[in-house]
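Bit of a strange request maybe. I'm writing a small parser for structure token strings and I need a real example to test against, not something I typed by hand. Could someone generate the tokens for this chain?
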Amino acid sequence: MSDLVCVGAIAGAFGVRGEVRLKSFTADPSAIADYAPLVTEDGARSFDVTITRAIKNGLAARLTGIATKEDADDLRGTRLFAPRERLPSLPDDEFYHSDLIGMTVVDTGGTELGRVRAVHDHGAGDILEVLGSSGEVLIPFTQAAVPTVDLTARRIVADISFDD
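Reply from user aminoacidic:
Good idea to test on real output. This should exercise your parser:
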């Protein structure tokens, strides 16, 4: 799955004519349609996407092959992926969340803290969820807290000192 990036998820049906509620994880939410066809995580299904309108907490969209409310409801929770080569390249200081997952995190002294299990965005900025031998640590994904991300070495340096 490393050549696929999760760009959205289906939140269920929208209306009764086969439209879906679509959560877009792209910087410009409506750009998700530009990366179609999108595939399911297992690669079993592929969908062309037509955005019909913006709705509260997402987009209403039509997916190829989805014609009824029941078809749309059956897809609730399905994550949609696009091949990495269809996505735009990013500036040096930006990263796709999927690139960060699994990276080793060390403190500024080189002690391993664990591996990135997830990246969360609750509106105030991204937070790295790091799981290590001493448990789970949440680290704000800011320049001050994470001064170094080395994609080639798959290593993140985190400054977890809270001295002011």
